[in-house]
Design brief:
Number of helices: 3
Oligomer: single chain
Structural class: mainly alpha
Strand content: under 5%
Helix content: over 70%
Order of helices and strands: HHH
Number of strands: 0
């Protein structure tokens, strides 16, 4: 049980970090110095990080709710 709780906590920490880093905005200095293609790739990466973080947090929340109901 301790191993499962540690794994869930670890996954939540990683998901929170992904969600937080994905929600950051590209600084104005980078917008002026990078090419539009590079900015597009960077924004896609940030969006992907945010989405993965949200999916993991929601999945773990559903698993915990299901486990508490069961």
């Amino acid at each position: 049980m301790l191993i499962a709780a540690t794994a869930v906590l670890f996954a939540l920490i990683i998901a929170a970090v992904l969600w937080r880093t994905g929600a950051t905005e590209i600084p104005k200095e980078m917008r002026t110095s990078f090419s539009p293609q590079d900015l597009e790739v960077l924004q896609e990466d940030l969006n992907f990080r945010k989405l993965v973080g949200q999916i993991v947090v929601i999945s773990i929340a559903f698993l915990l709710i299901f486990w508490l109901i069961w």
